[in-house]
């Protein structure tokens, strides 16, 4: 298995991140990033070549120590994220700060620290963005702003690092625990059949990282079928 490419997936404890880890497992060695070490260990135990990589992306000191070990890295999938919603009037400073700390600075800091390892393998960075990173809606300002920001980061990285491939994935609403919390805040009934499955998003990630060397998948947009 040592000849398989190495992929680091953040947000791997649940939802899209866990689905991405399962999708990549047959063809990659995996590092599973997230805050819940027990959940990471449980997932790793179900995969052929996976190790937990517990990390708090908002802890700069911990990130510096955790990334010092990398020599090469073939794939980096940013799936960790938070969604703190609210209007311009009602969203608090903490709401804005939480969205940007994880959704933007966590992505930026981890990518920057791993650039030497990614360059060494001419690697691939995949950013799980959101439909909110393309269209801002009322009540979604703090979250959408963070997703527009990480979109700009990915676009800049793609232009600046010519040896890397950088793909932004823009899924619509997806059946995850985060989505359940959002729907509850909106006061609506949860209808999972109306949303994408995490496995569908993971399939798009696998297709992007499996693209032949002459191809650079820059953006992938996914919406629930029938709700485009």
Task: Please tell me about this protein's structure.
The structure is a single chain. This protein is an alpha/beta fold and 228 residues long. The chain has a single domain, classed as 3-Layer(aba) Sandwich (Rossmann fold), CATH 3.40.50.720. The protein is 42% helix and 15% strand. The protein is built from 7 helices and 7 strands; from the N terminus they run E-H-E-H-E-H-E-H-E-H-E-H-H-E. It has helices at residues 15-24, 37-44, 60-67, 93-120, 141-160, 177-185, 198-209, and strands at residues 6-9, 29-34, 50-54, 75-78, 124-128, 165-171, 219-222. It has a 7-stranded parallel β-sheet with strand order 3-2-1-4-5-6-7, with helices on both faces. Strand 5 (124-128), helix 5 (141-160) and strand 6 form a beta-alpha-beta unit. Helix 1 packs across helix 7 (198-209), helix 3 packs parallel to helix 4 and helix 4 packs parallel to helix 5 (141-160). The model has no long low-confidence stretch (mean pLDDT 95).
What is the structure about, briefly put?
By secondary structure, the protein is of the alpha/beta class. Helices cover 42% and strands 15% of the residues. It holds the Pfam family adh_short.
Model regions low in confidence, pLDDT < 50 over at least 5 residues: none
Largest sheet: 7 strands, parallel
Total individual domains: 1
Number of helices: 7
The second-level CATH architecture is 3-Layer(aba) Sandwich
Strand content: 15-25%
The share of residues in helices is 40-55%
In total, the number of strands is 7
